[in-house]
Amino acid sequence: MPADDLGPAITISHDHGAWVHVDGAFGLWAAASPTTRHLVEGLERADSWGTDGHKWLNVPYDAGYAFCAHPDAHAAAMAYTAAYLVGREPATSRSPGDYVPESSRRARGVATWAAIRQLGRSGIAELVDRCCALARRFASRLASFPGVEVGNDVVLNQVLVRFGDDDEETDRVVEAVQGSGECWMGSTTWHGRRYMRISVSSWRTTDHDVDRAVDAIVAASRS
Prior knowledge:
By secondary structure, this protein is of the alpha+beta class. The protein is 38% helix and 15% strand.
């Protein structure tokens, strides 16, 4: 059973004439691994997807991807023209500029192609699986300490951690960890409560890195 029942949700949305967009910054990459693919079952029926390359694919920060099942609607939303941008004859080929907000940009696709070419299908799946395993390591180690609460089911690479009984303590720990220079964790609010947010996506992260980070987090919580 998919975690969010995407299939039925998409069916209901389409029955009511809605456009279904999936913001899959991290989550879309679950489809790359047989281990996590069930989490996004039904995704292929959405009208559009968005995801990032700078996270799990580890390419430069501005590499993001949009996928749309309706190219005419996509172009209608993005394309613009002016007299100096078109020739006298109608265009006979697809213009990439009709599908993006920029008039010009660097060749982001080269880095994406190179990463996919180097990793291959199995390499990307292994990267996803390894990062998810490291996230579970974070969660299990941190949950073993008194006063530390893991707030989410760790089904992918995200871990939410809370310290003590109030938001101020969690924010204090996050600030102390960031100031330590040992690792960097952000913060977020989920269900009205403050949490430390841990995201594991780097190809360079190891078990040892996780253990060092846990030690730094626990030390900050006790300071």
